[in-house]
């Protein structure tokens, strides 16, 4: 092979003094680089480059910084195979590697990926997989979210935010409840006096009897005919007489020998 394009992954730092692999012809432009199928931003200082193989010139005229497209790479003078998919190359240095213009990838590389060798794709930033078929979100989608495209997660119910990192309870949490994730699901954690999916129901420890409803912590709303903290006391509109007891609305339980709605009638004895 007599020609190779130079791929330089994302890197910010001092790149002075790098040299290419002696067996590779590097092609560079004074104010930019050409990555096949993908444009690179221009460099901010001129670069001197060799047009022939050999250890000679691939020098920066002075130290400078560069920020380009892809990720992790290693010094170009160590191993020209580094930087390929699956490499364990360290981050933070630049690399050139051999590009075969006759390479064929079946199936084809997706999402602007470049076929650099037969059935070997070099993926654009934000994609991964053998054919660059998978989007890669960074940070990764949380709470079961799925990466749809770089930087865009599809979140399951109960979660939101760019990376599904925010817990969202449908309808919100009432009465001081706090929305939080519990076993992968969003739910409201309620204060001690409230309950329900949204903390919408007050709690009455004493209970509300006889059809009463707990309307606030410890407070029952009683139906007609009942009163008391737990709606446990019946009301008789006309009081029971002769020691009788009101046992339900307008119903008296009489003591012998009395009877009648108000225990006002004395039973006759023979």
TrEMBL record:
Chain coiled-coil ranges: none
UniProt domain EGF-like: residue ranges: 101-133, 165-200, 232-264
Domain of life the protein comes from: Eukaryota
GO (cellular component) term, any one: cell surface
Cysteine disulfide partners in this protein: 105-115, 123-132, 169-179, 190-199, 236-246, 254-263
Keywords, ordered alphabetically: Disulfide bond, EGF-like domain, Signal
Recorded GO MF terms: signaling receptor binding
Name of the featured protein: von Willebrand factor D and EGF domain-containing protein
Lineage: Eukaryota, Metazoa, Chordata, Craniata, Vertebrata
């Amino acid at each position: 092979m007599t020609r190779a394009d130079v791929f330089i992954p994302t890197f910010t730092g001092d790149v002075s003094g790098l040299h290419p692999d002696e067996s590779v012809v590097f092609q560079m432009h004074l104010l930019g680089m050409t990555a096949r199928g993908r444009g690179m931003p221009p460099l901010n200082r001129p670069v001197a480059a060799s047009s022939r193989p050999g250890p000679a010139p691939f020098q920066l005229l002075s130290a400078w910084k560069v920020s380009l497209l892809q990720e992790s790479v290693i010094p170009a003078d160590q191993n020209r195979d580094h930087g390929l998919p699956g490499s364990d190359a360290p981050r933070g240095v630049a690399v050139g590697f051999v590009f075969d213009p006759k390479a064929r990838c079946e199936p084809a590389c997706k999402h602007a990926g470049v076929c650099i060798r037969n059935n070997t794709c070099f993926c654009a930033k934000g994609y991964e997989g053998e054919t660059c078929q998978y989007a890669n979100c960074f940070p990764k989608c949380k709470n079961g979210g799925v990466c749809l495209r770089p930087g865009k997660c599809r979140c399951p119910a109960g979660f939101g935010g760019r990376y599904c990192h925010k817990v969202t309870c449908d309808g919100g949490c009432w009465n001081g409840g706090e929305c939080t994730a519990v076993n992968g699901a969003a739910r409201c954690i309620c204060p001690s006096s409230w309950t329900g999916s949204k903390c919408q129901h007050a709690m009455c420890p004493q209970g509300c009897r006889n059809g009463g409803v707990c309307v606030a912590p410890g407070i029952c709303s009683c139906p007609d005919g009942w009163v008391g903290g737990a709606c446990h006391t019946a009301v008789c509109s006309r009081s029971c007489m002769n020691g009788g007891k009101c046992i339900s609305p307008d119903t008296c339980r009489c003591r012998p020998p009395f009877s009648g709605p108000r225990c006002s009638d004395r039973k006759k004895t023979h």
